[in-house]
């Protein structure tokens, strides 16, 4: 009898947050791997804010997920059957694949994921797959962060922000985080390298940034957008830089998103603003992975993981990112 595997299929385009109608969990065929293919059992799905972006219509930086097709995401899998020389049975691999318990692939878009010695698998995946490379690239290559500089980071208690604070501190910079609760702000300062942290829900962010960086900000690393970005624009030094990594506050928006209102600061302060997508920088990954693995091994870099059990929980878990309800890197364990 042909085998099947549970797979999340994209059924209805959401308006605002994902609902029970957005996906359906269906049994889909699981063929035997042909020559040059492998069968993979998914161990962890990485839930990322951009998963929501892929569900929208219109031109994106990558392919949209198609209605009627499988939902996809970054995952860590284990090869269970192999007819591919690069991925023997038992190998771990990571890349972008379907939200499915098992799948068959020719390995394109996947790379071996050797577990660093002594590392916890979930933490290593959380650091090395998306968040660590994003923070490293955004701060160092795109943002040009230098030792001694003041860097403000929004979405600081999310997975990218937690990496960014620690990398900035290891680089000799002065990171100021912006996050949504006092508990998250305290953890940023106590555990994740931040020199200071601002609660954007209870504080005047522009005023607090001025207090923590009286001479101004050299680099702003934006994960959120909206009023937080305006507060940063009001506090930049002359010739400062902004790295736009993401704008999570807009991903569930149902109307056009206004702002930034302080656009004039780009001229006043002669600012450079640069967006980036990690997929354009895959050639840098080997060097970045070396840095991240070294920092993991010497204790410079830590990542709290927020693990949800069960493939069936993936859609509702994705909404946690937009509610600020995740504490650390959000993963689904299968
Ligand atoms: N450019 C790239 O290649 C790339 C790669 C990966 C990720 N990203 C981007 O990086 C950003 C962070 O991603 P992540 O994986 O680190 O997610 P995450 O931070 O682990 O989770 C999202 C956090 O963002 C905050 N947030 C959610 N909605 C918000 C809102 N309306 N206003 C302010 N804060 C809000 C919440 O924390 P609070 O409690 O603090 O509100 C939430 O916990 C996203 O924008 C993502 O798209 C970009």
* N-to-C series of helices and strands: EEEHEEEEHEHEHEHEHEHEHEHHE
Major beta sheet summary = 7 strands, mixed
Q: Roughly how much helix do the residues carry, as a percent range? A: 25-40%
Q: What would the average pLDDT be, to the nearest integer?
A: 96
Q: Which consecutive residue ranges, at least 5 long each, have pLDDT under 50?
A: none
CATH class of the largest domain: Alpha Beta
- How many domains? The number is 2
Q: Which molecules are bound besides the chains?
A: NADP nicotinamide-adenine-dinucleotide phosphate
* Global structural class: alpha/beta
Termini, distance in Å? 24 Å
Number of helices: 10
Strand proportion: 25-35%
CA-based shape: globular
The CATH architecture of the largest domain can be named as 3-Layer(aba) Sandwich
CATH superfamily of the largest domain: NAD(P)-binding Rossmann-like Domain
Radius of gyration: 20 Å
């Amino acid at each position: 009898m042909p085998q099947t595997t549970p797979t999340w299929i994209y059924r209805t385009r959401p308006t605002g947050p994902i609902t029970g109608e957005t996906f359906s969990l269906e049994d889909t065929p699981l063929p035997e791997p042909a020559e040059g293919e492998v069968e993979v059992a998914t161990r962890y799905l990485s839930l990322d804010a951009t998963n929501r972006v892929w569900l929208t219509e219109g031109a994106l930086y990558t392919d949209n997920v198609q209605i009627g097709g499988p939902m996809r995401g970054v995952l860590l899998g284990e090869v269970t059957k192999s007819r591919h020389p690069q991925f023997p049975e038992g190998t771990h691999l990571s890349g972008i694949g379907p939200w499915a318990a098992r799948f068959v692939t020719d390995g394109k878009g996947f790379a071996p994921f050797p577990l660093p010695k002594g590392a916890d698998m979930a933490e290593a995946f959380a650091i090395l797959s998306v968040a660590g490379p994003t923070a490293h690239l955004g701060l160092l290559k795109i943002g040009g962060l230098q030792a001694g500089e003041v860097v403000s980071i929004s979405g600081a208690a999310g997975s990218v922000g937690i990496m960014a604070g620690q990398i900035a501190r290891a680089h000799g910079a002065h990171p100021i985080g912006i996050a949504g609760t006092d508990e998250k702000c305290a953890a940023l300062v106590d555990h994740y390298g931040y020199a200071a942290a601002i609660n954007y829900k209870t504080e005047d962010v522009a005023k607090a940034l001025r207090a923590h960086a009286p001479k101004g900000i050299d680099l702003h690393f934006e994960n959120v957008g909206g009023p937080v970005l305006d507060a940063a624009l009001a506090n930049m030094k002359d010739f400062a830089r902004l790295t736009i990594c993401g704008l999570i506050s807009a991903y569930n928006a149902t109307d056009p998103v206004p702002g930034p209102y302080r656009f004039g600061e780009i001229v006043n302060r002669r600012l450079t603003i640069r967006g980036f997508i990690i997929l354009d920088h895959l050639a840098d990954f080997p060097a970045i992975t070396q840095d991240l693995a070294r920092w993991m091994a010497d204790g410079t870099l830590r990542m709290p993981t927020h693990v949800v059990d069960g493939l069936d929980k993936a859609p509702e878990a994705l909404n946690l990112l937009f509610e600020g309800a995740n504490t650390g890197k959000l993963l689904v364990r299968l």
